[in-house]
Amino acid sequence: MSRQMGDSHRRFLQTMMVNGIVDEQGARTLYQYCCETHNMQHAPDKLDDFIDTINSKLQPMFMQIRKGMSEDNGHQHYALVNMAETDVTRMSSDYADNELELFRKTVDLIVSSETGKASSTDILNSADTLTSKKLKKSETEHLLNRLVHDKWLSEKWGEYTLSTRCVIEMEPYIRTMYQDQVKVCHICHYIAFQCQICENPTCGIKIHNPCVARYFKGRSEPRCPACEDFWPHEIPEVRRPKSQSRR
User: Which DSSP helix (H) or strand (E) runs through 35?
Assistant: First the structure.
């Protein structure tokens, strides 16, 4: 496939700039649509090559379409990331200093927890410890809603996790700031927050829940892939990607 940037690549990039992140099925559907709209040959197995062409033009602008995995369902996603800034200062144009401080504290809570989650109560309590301008309860709740809307956090039943977009885009920052706390999934090698942990104290590997589902599927007696101790956790079911209509 040609490395020349064409109208199909530009349309794909424009959509990524609007959405920020898209799952793999959505990316494949968008790729086909862009090719057909601009009379470019569509090769279904060449999506990554197509994106590589876009990335080669984005490199001087310190931007990249990067691939990562959702901890929630194990599905691959593509996110447009800013590589010029590797920490939360990239958000400074959209959030005030005290809002960024609370976001950092929220990341601290999520990374340091055993479940990869932070409760709304814990986050509200953190708002009382800000060194910058304090946030009222209503302002904190509004900020959390914004962070979810902007795809930095995900929320379910009052608990917050780092969104797929956040993990993909903030990975260098997270690895640097929390290098003693962060581990990668033994199966997929992406950063693991929401996961199962081997209970052998000399092992302690982490495996994402979706990776657990795939790795142990059909095994009558699940054992740790690293130390071979019995794996005592509940094995979740494999979640299939939902089909999506063309954009």
Answer: helix 24-37
Distance CA 147, CA 163 (A): 10
d(C-alpha 21, C-alpha 146), whole Å:
16
The beta strands (E) that lie in the chain are given as 21-23, 63-69, 76-82, 118-119, 153-156, 159-162, 183-184, 191-192, 195-197, 206-208
Is the C-alpha dihedral spanning 56, 68, 79, 161 positive or negative?
A: negative
Best CA proximity match to 73, nearest among 213, 233, 244, 219: 213
The neighbouring-strand residues paired with 153 are 162
**What is the C-alpha to C-alpha distance for residues 85 and 223, in angstroms, rounded to an integer?**
41
pLDDT of residue 220: 84
User: Tokens for 177?
Assistant: 């700031």
Tell me the whole-structure pTM to 2 decimals. Answer: 0.82
Q: Give the chain's mean pLDDT.
A: 90
